[in-house]
Design brief:
Blueprint (H helix, E strand, L loop, with lengths): L1 H14 L1 E3 L3 H9 L7 H18 L1 H17 L10 H36 L17 H8 L2 H27 L1 H5 L6 H41 L2 E2 H12 L2 H22 L5 E4 L4 E6 L9 E7 L1 H12 L3 E4 L1 H10 L11 H15 L4
Helix pairs in contact: 3-5, 3-9, 4-5, 7-9
Length: 363
């Protein structure tokens, strides 16, 4: 019972997600669109830079507004509309509006792209757009609604509303006396004061939202790292998939070794002589003067493999000779298919000469 409980505890420990995600897991999550990002950062940067652009490019906007509404009120309202000039009027209004909004469009596009690239780099994936039936599961939907992430998002929204309200209140409180006297000011003064107050609030609110969005990005990064953590068992399974199951690889190596051993044994009957230790080593040699520059090792082995080589040699009439120093030197210094080392030519030649003499052959 105690052993079973220990194994169960060990299994539960291995399944706890306590390990950092591997590069492979990070790549898979990224391809699925699961990256750490704050959805508020790009919007906050856009608000900040657009508000700042109104202050820095005030002359440009002023010129374009006068060009748009000046010609409209001074010229086009008293113009007799006809089928010929209506298109000219439309094109002129469209062009002036486009030139007025062009800096805003450019800022929105550039800052929007940079605001996302800074967080998670360039990423193009359609995985989040795929239809998944799991998203229609009401139980999972309720879990997402009442999850800790949803609670954090709720308090984050409340915090932003409170901060914006405080900034607006402080700005109005500072300009309260001026606001009370606006009714006695010309239209130009009222418009200038309103625009100045609005732009200052836009810059202040944008700067505060950028700071909050950056903090939110750090939180989202923490949550993302936490969500992709792996258990020890997950890492083992991933290693098995990428490198192969060690047991399977072991069985494959064992089968390959047996096949290589079988091929080697098939070459033993072709040998001219088998040199032995006599019990520990066995080396099968063959020499064909017409095809070989030197004797070649067809097979070699030690212990039970050496015993099997000698048995096959005996079954096929291959002469076996005992030469302990030569057998050990050939086993250590040459592999199957290699020619014998040059300094062993003399010793091997003497063995082959004796073998050929026994067989009644002269070479």
């Amino acid at each position: 019972m105690r052993t079973y409980r220990y194994k169960l505890d060990l299994q539960l420990f291995n399944q706890e997600k306590t390990e950092k995600a591997t590069p492979k897991k990070r790549g898979e999550s990224r391809n699925k669109g699961q990256v750490a990002k704050s959805s508020d950062l790009a919007g906050a940067l856009i608000l900040l830079f657009v508000s700042a652009s109104f202050m820095m490019l005030s002359d440009y906007y002023n010129t374009r507004l006068l060009a748009l509404f000046g010609s409209l009120f001074q010229d086009w309202l008293t113009l007799q509309l006809t089928s010929e000039n209506i298109m000219e009027l439309f094109i002129n209004l469209l062009w002036q509006s486009l030139m007025l909004l062009l800096p805003i469009f450019a800022i929105v596009m550039i800052v929007g792209v940079i605001g996302n690239v800074v967080q998670f780099g360039f990423l193009l994936t359609g995985e989040p757009l795929k239809m998944k039936l799991s998203k229609l599961n009401p139980i999972e939907g309720f879990k997402r609604i009442f999850s800790m992430r949803s609670l954090v998002e709720f308090f984050k929204s409340i915090l932003k509303v409170v901060i914006i309200a405080v900034l607006v209140y402080m700005a109005i409180a500072q300009q309260w006396e001026t606001l009370l006297s606006l009714s006695m000011q010309p239209i130009q003064e009222i418009f200038a004061f309103t625009a100045d107050l609005t732009l200052k609030l836009g810059v202040q609110i944008g700067a505060v939202l950028v700071v909050l969005a950056f903090l939110d990005f750090l939180y989202q990064k923490y949550e993302h790292e936490k969500s992709i953590k792996m258990s020890k068992q997950d890492i083992k399974d991933e290693h098995k998939k990428s490198e192969g199951d060690p047991l399977t690889k072991g069985r494959i190596r064992e089968r390959q070794r047996k096949m290589a051993l079988q091929r080697m044994m098939q070459e033993v009957p072709k040998a001219d002589v088998v040199i032995t230790n006599p019990t520990h080593f066995a080396i099968a040699l063959k020499y064909d003067a017409s095809n070989m520059e030197a004797p070649t090792i067809l097979a070699k082995g030690m212990d039970h493999v050496a015993l099997r080589i000698k048995e096959i040699a005996k079954e096929n009439g291959v002469i076996t000779m005992e030469n302990k120093p030569l057998a050990r030197a050939l086993y250590d210094r040459a592999e199957i298919g290699d020619v014998i080392p040059g300094d062993l030519f003399q010793a091997v030649a003497e063995v082959l000469a004796y073998v050929y003499k026994l067989k009644g052959r002269v070479k």
